[in-house]
């Protein structure tokens, strides 16, 4: 990339003005997006304006449209809702209202509009854009603006960010606010589970989502609900029978509670609403169970945004500014969104059209089509949910295989959810499933037992590792491991764990040359807070650790805001991998994050101290610095703390905090539960196929490279990659992959912390088309 291009990002916005508004229902993470739009806009040299109270503020003008400064978005990141206010606006629906809005923008020289809201808000923005030249003509005729002003504002650029807890906007994997809403729901479900178990109760929980069943569906996957009602897939006509049979089966298996999740838009095949009261009355009348209804309501919109939503909002905000400033009169209004972990730009009206098609399909009772239009990710969730909830495990084990499941490495939240879905999918396929305690050590010592359906009951929401986990590698006990593989007739191995699970897999591959018994298929599911397993962009447990760090940073920032002039240095885990420090830095608004992959010198440390000295002269009198535990042997947390203390004398105090093992604990977040559940199901399906493939002369013999894989998420898809092929991509000394996708988010962290650095705009999201994306999108 040339120096000129680098320079271009910093001057891209000179002479331009951007207005940002939030509209429609509020969603957690909107503030993160507003903050990023303001700061990146200012960084590019543009002027940025807040529009308070959504479109209403745009129509009313006056004090509602105010110029933003760098400091005016400080401390916004961790707040839920939207700080600049949102309103449902009737005036903007009328042409008269839009005329006043155009007048307000032209008078301030604003020709770029960033709208954060749901599909209604974004459609309104598109109408506004298409009428723009007519509106200007009318204003000029009426003498409200001069010809010169009209010429200066000849076209309007619009970029949308989808902020909605419902996740009902087509073309985007996740809308801003969805993950936080799931956090609220899961906190409540966990709390209700404990009381329901005490009293053997049935709970009917009603969640939001308007006409979209996403929240209900993912909640059901994440808490192992007995039944879910979603608008996209109404139950069969005899659902009352089926539901009651299902509930009593669960009870007979020894469960003390039932959980039924209802989406607020739930309907039957004839389009008649199914209400939570109706379900409660049915259960009480037919089964006589003590049944309670809880309607979650606006709790779901509240609270602090999750780490995911803060990062999503920040990344989308950056992309939105770039899309606006690169816009021309010919580029269509676009939506910036996330697909897998990549930023994409999609034509706004195509997305709105598909979103409308879903509604139309549902109104016309074409439910299968509605389901397809929701996208692959939605379909996948539904398939896995149906498998885990609605199939009775076969009674006979004839023609079955024996698969063993184990945990390796350090504990990570979500490991138990992965074990649960692996075990249950295995049983549904008619296999015998064994669980191994304490990793490879337990495999060598024979700490192995058979698991039935209820063995893993209620495991989804539990943190840590119930099977027990060790870092021991298999090589030195091949003899005993081979003996146990024969003794227990193990024909396949599912290894859930971190870097040791991967290196253990490599050792098993090597061991195949010496021991025929090791020639069985195995698959590694990455589960570690460090997110350092080659072959996967994400590992189970990293999202939970990120949220834990974030919560702590929020509290520390609050304390620092009270005492003023204070800088906190926080040490995070991760080994040599800087994922947690970088992502937590983005999510908590840190001034710097020191990591191993991005080498730093004493000059960088000096520059950071100087930057904080300057910051103390502004209204924001506090600092937050993150340091990954192994980022540098010599610049330790103590060293950095001492340096900051010395250099900051008389200007700021320093404090240090080592977060330690709390990062491995806690109840798994919705993302980790859902991700682990889907990975477990996918791994077990692969395993069954591989065992059948490897059947030779009455026994299993797997000796090909593709019979030992890592199941990983890459960009937009879950894929199986042979461990042997991943060797080239691994830095074994530092236990990290050689290339890591999240490193390209580091410049965003620095820009949002007001560093004059170059933003590499070469990796830009190009405009994609939604219809093509639908068919080509790989399932996650």
Strand proportion, as a percent range, falls in: 15-25%
- Tally the helices: 26
Largest sheet: 7 strands, mixed
State Rg. 27 Å
Tell how many strands the DSSP assignment holds: 26
Low-confidence stretches: 1-6, 772-780
Distance between the termini: 33 Å
What is the helix fraction of residues, given as a range? 40-55%
Q: Which structural class should the secondary elements be placed in?
A: alpha/beta
- Strand order across the largest sheet: 3-2-1-4-5-10-11
Protein name: ATP-dependent 6-phosphofructokinase
Organism: Camelus ferus
Keywords: Acetylation, Allosteric enzyme, ATP-binding, Cytoplasm, Glycolysis, Glycoprotein, Hydroxylation, Kinase, Magnesium, Metal-binding, Nucleotide-binding, Phosphoprotein, Transferase
GO cellular component, one term: 6-phosphofructokinase complex
3D architecture notes:
There is one protein chain. The two termini are 33 Å apart. The chain is an alpha/beta fold and 780 residues long. α4 crosses α5 (119-141), α7 packs across α8 (214-223) and α8 packs across α14 (376-390). The protein is globular, with a radius of gyration of 27 Å. The relative contact order is 0.11. Keywords: Acetylation, Allosteric enzyme, ATP-binding, Cytoplasm, Glycolysis, Glycoprotein, Hydroxylation, Kinase, Magnesium, Metal-binding, Nucleotide-binding, Phosphoprotein, Transferase.
Give structural attributes.
about 775 residues; alpha/beta; 7-stranded mixed β-sheet; 26 helices; 26 strands; about 45% helix; globular; disordered N terminus; disordered C terminus; glycolysis; transferase; EC 2.7.1.11; metal-binding
